[in-house]
Amino acid sequence: MCQGFKAAGMAAGIKKNGNKDLGLIVSEVPAAVAAVFTKNKVQAAPVLLDKERCKTGKCQAIIVNSGNANCCTGPQGMADAIEMSRLAAAGLSLSENLVCVASTGVIGQALPVAKIESAFPELARSLSEDGFSDFAEAIMTTDTKPKIVSRKAAVSGKTFTVTGIAKGAGMICPDMATMLCFVCTDIAADSAALQPMLQKAVDLSFNRITIDGDTSTNDTVLVLANGISGISMNQSGAQEKFQKCLDEILVELAKMVVRDGEGATKLVEVIVRGAVSASDAKKIAYTVANSNLFKTALFGEDANWGRILAAAGRSGASLDPQKVDIFFNDIRMVKDGLWCGAEAEKNATRVLKTPEFNITVDLKLGAGEASYWTCDFSIDYVKINADYRS
Amino acid sequence: MCQGFKAAGMAAGIKKNGNKDLGLIVSEVPAAVAAVFTKNKVQAAPVLLDKERCKTGKCQAIIVNSGNANCCTGPQGMADAIEMSRLAAAGLSLSENLVCVASTGVIGQALPVAKIESAFPELARSLSEDGFSDFAEAIMTTDTKPKIVSRKAAVSGKTFTVTGIAKGAGMICPDMATMLCFVCTDIAADSAALQPMLQKAVDLSFNRITIDGDTSTNDTVLVLANGISGISMNQSGAQEKFQKCLDEILVELAKMVVRDGEGATKLVEVIVRGAVSASDAKKIAYTVANSNLFKTALFGEDANWGRILAAAGRSGASLDPQKVDIFFNDIRMVKDGLWCGAEAEKNATRVLKTPEFNITVDLKLGAGEASYWTCDFSIDYVKINADYRS
């Protein structure tokens, strides 16, 4: 995949079902790092540790486990996160400060560090340039599919690569919608330049998806740039091309996360335009995309525009109900707040039967625009989440 | 029930299933009125009409239909709401200004006024002091039970009565959680005195419940006070006693609404204490009570405290995860942010198997308190709401 990066993934016995649950990414040389973490005030030990580690601007290895979130585990949890990074650093002969850690899974249970210790030598031995798909599997919890997206771009006759791996599928084993994403690139960049580029890409992607409105204690996005391609971010055109790759990768991964949402059968983009401001547009798009009534109607393939309008109305944003238009793809179902009739409903219902479509709410008040990706809310979502720990 | 009030309910053919769908309450004399309406910016025609009517401070009759919300119906919807009030006024020989109107049901379809017109003479004929249970049935949509609560109190040797009737069960036929509540009392009061008393009772009751986080376009609470008991609100002790009755009735009705929540199997009070402020406590209680992850765990009878803590953490309120205690009834499951062990979990799980219990989150930061009633989130909720219109 990406020059100068190796990865691995294996089963260390953390997950009860014996699936892969321990992953490792290593760069040949220390890489510049940028990071975005959960805004939840309850933060897992690995998040707290990585925040400190990333302050140095450098990272060379990431060790990740699934099956246990190492969250709400108190001082022992922090000691365990540090021990996990120490094991990786020792096994790879790196400075401990160059190792980041991530965990996802059950909350409130002690991390089985001994299992990680036993497994690590084999994990390190299996590191390879082709190990990314094993890594992607090792970080899955309720995900049904591994999620990897890669892009290449050329600058002055040389090529750089950007590879992103993500996990997330709604709430996780069994506690929440943990979303982890790791991006490797062989372009050269410094941490300070990388950080705003990552923030921009996250705002376009992971900050525009919702499965169940719950924000994890463990959400982490890390970008490692090791410079092995010989291309520098400072070369003419490099920054634009890298940003484009990063944006595309994160948007694609974000959509893969929603498509793989727990119990989800549909990927729906909720687009709001014509709002008084972008912030008002965002309020409405977010409220509609999170409405249980709207999401259950999606599952039922019911073009229930009343629920869309009602959610918009309670979002806190300015709107005039008698001006609103609502579209399902290009089918206008509501014009000036009124139903467009049986023919429009029939066509909109046809759109709803497809697996991916968009819904546009046009307020006709201003130039504010925003959009979110969401999924439907199914019987399987409840089944998956009701009985997880039993 | 209440002196000087009669009620009736019948099937007028608005609901497809032939159930009762038209209700009427009439006072012998014009009554003082107080009202609270939905804060949704999309408001149904009857809500807009009642807001105008209530400005006079007087109301003598309320006509209510279920099966159609008369919402998002444009100018025709307002004309239909006015016509519905005109029919009632004419049939009862009252001034049209003394009639309030409420509707609940499908959004965006024209109100079948002709059916109301045909049915009205029979409805008026069947008015009786014992008609409140028919009325309560006539305003139901996805409710499984009618909801009536009555209280009496004595002042200076005379007795006054307060009777409340409510409907609401999550989202409604098929669009949202319409909550309607009508309170009749034979105490004498003026509208200006009644309004803050109603607002206080609503803040204690309907503003502290959530089934699915969606706010209806049609929510309406009306209180009619006709004075027939001969007791005045100005008499010594009357105001306190009336407020107590009103509070108790609305709290009881609110709990009945949650208990009857679509697909609900449990009524759970989420109590937050020890917050920095009451507003912080409210943020946390509301976020937990609305979390799909938390609510699906309730359905699964899983004492999933991690989801509670994670929801608290994303609420925006101040908290220190290492100080938080969590109780299921009186069982402490989490102390200082850490799990209390297998014995506590076993006892908490026993609590979760009961139909009604409370969960307390103690932040140990200050004196802020708040609570919400919520229900679990079941497979039936999704079934009820996915396929409603088909």
Look at the structure and give the mean pLDDT of chain A: 91
Residue ranges of chain A: pLDDT <50 for 5 or more in a row? 171-177
Q: Count interface residues per chain for the largest interface.
A: A-B, 64 and 63 residues
CATH superfamily membership of the largest domain in chain A: L-amino peptidase D-ALA esterase/amidase
Tell me the helix content of chain A: 25-40%
End-to-end C-alpha gap of chain A: 39 Å
User: What is the ordering of alpha helices and beta strands of chain A?
Assistant: EEHEHEHHEEEHEEHEHHHEEEHEEH
Quaternary structure of the protein: homodimer
Strand content of chain A: 25-35%
Describe the structure.
Two copies of one chain form a homodimer. Chain A folds into two domains: 5-259, 4-Layer Sandwich (L-amino peptidase D-ALA esterase/amidase), CATH 3.60.70; 267-386, ArgJ beta chain, C-terminal domain (Ubiquitin-like (UB roll)), CATH 3.10.20.340. Helix content of chain A is 34%, strand content 28%. Chain A has eleven helices and 15 strands. In chain A, the strands form two sheets. In chain A, strands 1, 2, 3, 4, 5, 6, 7 and 9 form an eight-stranded mixed beta sheet that branches. A seven-stranded mixed beta sheet of chain A has the order 8-15-10-14-11-12-13. In chain A, a hairpin with a 2-residue loop joins strand 5 and strand 6. In chain A, helix 1 crosses helix 2 (74-92), helix 2 (74-92) packs parallel to helix 3 (113-125) and helix 7 crosses helix 9 (305-313). Mean pLDDT of chain A is 91; it is low at 171-177. Chains A and B meet through helix 8, helix 9, strand 13 and helix 11 of A and helix 8, helix 9, strand 12 and helix 11 of B.
